[in-house]
Amino acid sequence: MSDAFFEIGSPRDLLEKAKRDYAKMKAGTSTDTIFNFFVTAYHVVDYVKALGAVPESTISNLYDDPDFKMCQFLCNKGKHIKLRQSHTYQAKHEAAVAGGTLGSFVLGSDVLGGPERFIVLDGASEVDTGELGARLIRKWETFFSTNGIA
Asked: 120 lies in which domain range?
C-alpha cells in the first residue's frame, strides 16, 4: 500500500503543488490563493521529515529562517485564526483604492488610487505575500538541491 496522497507522494511532489499554488496566487491574489499557497509551502517540511534523509539539525535551521517563520505564521493564522503564541507578525489586507480627485485628497491619509495589497507586517516592515512566496520557492529549491532531494 502506498503512503502517497493520490498523486502526491514525495517532497518534490508537494513542492510542485506549492509552485502551482504560487502561480495561481500571482494570477489572482486573494485570501483563498494566499491560504492555499502558504499552507502547502509550509507543509513541504512534513514530507521532507517523512523522507528521513535530512538531519534534524538541518530542519531546525529551516525553522529558524525568517521567511519560513512568516510562512508558518500565515499558514497557522489561516488554519486556526487564533494562535496560541503571540507573534510579532500581522496579516494585513488593504483593499484597492479607486483613483480620487485632487480636491478630496488629504495629505498623509488618502491615496489617489492604489492596488489591493496582502502583506505581512513584521514590526514596521511590510512584506508583500507575493514576494515572500517567491523567496520561499527559491529557498525550497536551494534546500532540495543542497540536501540531495530529487
From this structure: 11-146
